Structures are given as C-alpha cells and as structure tokens.
Amino acid sequence: MESMALSISFVNESIFLFKPSSIFSAGVSYQPKISMSPLDDYKGFLPDQGTLDIPATGTAGISLSPWKNFSFNADFQRI
Q1: Beta bridge partners of 78
Q2: How far apart are CA 5 and CA 47, in angstroms?
C-alpha cells in the first residue's frame, strides 16, 4: 500500500495534500487576508476610498478514483 503526504507553504498560502491510497486523496489550503494599498485612480469607483483587500480563504477537498479515467470530487471553500 502506497502512502504520500505533501505540505507546501508559500508566502501567503499553505497547502497540505494527502494520498493514503491509489484511489483516495484529500487536501486543504489556507490563504490569509491580503491588505492592499489604496488604488488612487479608483477612489470614486471602489468602496472605502479605493481599497480592495483580498479576503482570507480556506478550502478542503476529497477525491475518490475507483477507475482509471473516472473520479468523484468534492470541494468546500469558505471565503
């Protein structure tokens, strides 16, 4: 039985992938809120005087592949 776990971390995002067997895999990721500087050219168009922050995001998913070219996938994302 083959088992694999992989954890990746970027500057603003962490990803964990887990594949305990050849037919099942799961993964989670998280990205914290990214605060951006105000966009002066869009002060009248965007809310809060031109600020456009990227919200925190959490994602989880599973995959079941009972046959070679077929898989069932389910994902959940919270923003």
Answers
A1: 58
A2: 42
